Amino acid sequence: MIYRPIILDEEIKFSKKKFVVSKTDVEGNILFVNKNFCDITGYGHQELMGQPHSVLRHPDMPKAIFYMIWKSLFAGMEVSAIVKNVAKSGKYYWVIADFSMQRDNHGKLETFTSFKRAAPEYVSKGIEDLYHGMISAERKGGMEASLLFLEMFLEDKQMSYGEYLEDLVEEKGVFSSWMKRLKK
């Protein structure tokens, strides 16, 4: 069993060229992580196997974002998100995560895979206000209030969450090809 570390206000920076990969079963239990994942999180491969992926969830992340991720995946849609995770050391790191699902030979959802890259500082700074607002709403009125806050925020911008992320990343001129494929 993995115990939650004491949260530190110290960021782990890593190369945007490093892909961090994890695969879970449909219940969110870790089945695979790559070496970059272990290097960045500080957890050993065997230490993570079978553990819920939520052990990496930073308390600054709105639960509603993970609800949206799961809802999309179970609906058979790929989804991306900007996520703040916590490492074994208690330090945090930001990623742009691209989630996909795999099905068995009978079409039943079997596993979920996440390909993550380091989020540039302007991306994490750009999403922090939204996430802080969502967390504040969550504390007062639960996840429904957080989802409503997000819905109103996006309505005001006349965008979906995916479009907002795309705009946030593209705004600084580093819109990568792996994000572009989400539009296809």
UniProtKB/TrEMBL annotation:
Entry-linked NCBIfam families: sensory_box
Lineage of the species this protein comes from: Bacteria, Pseudomonadati, Campylobacterota, Epsilonproteobacteria, Campylobacterales
PAS domain ranges (all copies): 25-60
Annotated protein name in UniProt: SIGNAL-TRANSDUCTION SENSOR PROTEIN-PAS/PAC domain
Source species, domain of life: Bacteria
Matching Gene3D superfamilies: PAS domain
Coiled-coil blocks: none
Listed InterPro entries: PAS (IPR000014), PAS-like_dom_sf (IPR035965), PAS_fold_3 (IPR013655)
Pfam families for this protein: PAS_3 (PF08447)
Transmembrane segments: none
